[in-house]
Design brief:
about 475 residues, Oligosaccharide flippase family protein, 21 helices, mainly alpha, Poly_Biosynth_Transport
Length: about 475
Amino acid sequence: MKSKIGKNLIYNISYQMLAFLAPLITTPYVSRVLGPHNIGIYSYNYSIAYYFVIFIMLGLNNYGNRQIAKGKVEGNGNVERIFCEIYSMQISIAIIVIMGYIFYGIFIGKTIIVWLFFPYVLSGMLDINWLFFGLERFDLTVFRNSVIKIFTIILVFVLVKNSDDISIYCLLMAGSYLASQVIMWMFLRKIIKFHWVPFSVFRKHIRPNIILFIPIIAVSLYKIMDKIMLGQMSTLIEVGFYESAEKVIAIPMGIVTAIGTVMLPRISSLVKTDEEAANKFFLPMIGVSMFLVSALCFGMISVSTEFIPVFYGKGYDKCILLYMILLPSTLFLAYSNVVRTQYLIPFEQDWIFIISVIIGAIVNIVINTLLIPRYASVGAAVGTLLAEGSVCVFQIVASFKKLEQRESIKCAITFMMNGIIMYASIRKIYYNNNMITILLKIAIGGIVYIALFLIEYRKNIKVAISK
């Protein structure tokens, strides 16, 4: 069991390394070729299309994953039955939502960019990642994502040559989502034979799926809606700054998500057979998540002044401040992600999850409304930071007794302090060349951070290895 978890973690973190390299490769090129305004156009229209996609998916990435994982414990026949029931529901909802997007494109959007994102909306109907996650077949999804991402990177460099190619860029991004879903259907035939089931059969999945959709829509209010609010209350250039900052900040967030994606089906399976064993994973995963994210968060803040002009080119100086505000939000996200994927969802504590993200959404909307008109993208970044903080604090308080979180909070604070010490030790390092300064900070910062870890956790390392 542990070897399979380790293998799945390697698969997902390996993919996240590719996801880490992808923006490092393409963003410097795209930011210079398209410019902040066109990046803002892309981000604004993507954000709107995203809302249609999440209304297709509802809460399936969590609900479908959990149900398939539990069905696997009961037997393969149950997996096929559950998949056919849930996917029949997904198709039915998708048809209605896609018709809604067509209406939006004809009567409201009225731009070619809107239609270029239609393949992305269509991908929501074909998205069956939740099945493979529930079956813990991460090798297939990682292989698929890696191939599509590499191919997309190549096409961006070949086809996007100047600011007039914004349409090509949008189509490439939207098409990559659709292609990635189509590929998974090639693997499906070897696992499950799909057959349509009527509404009377799949209706039982609607209510629990909608319950898990509530946090999805709430989270979107401070992940996606902030860009739409920026576009409406400020300028598309500000949306471009915000989008550019978020691309690189997604790196630590991606690693956290990879860990949660692997652990959710495993914990969901254990809940059916051994609750005590399921709870034992919590503290180690807090340690792994906070170790990685604290290093990336404070490391990226320390190099932001040199990194921004090298990475994005001229005209993106505002991203330095956005980095410093947005990156600490990943610390809250790392902790709350472990609480969510290893306790709230597997143990069906859905309402704690729902209430927490509703609180986060309210905080974000209020802060955005107050700050965006005056501070634009900086106001949106503050809203995101406070929203993630409020979600994390509520989830900690609500699950404090069940998870005995004193040790995990102590662990998280220790890693954050290590990150702060690392930042303080390298922030004033300077050389005449920005790239050399960045490399020096990374090298010295890495040594300091690892040294602090080895000093404070040498005994814990021996215990962890022995287990």
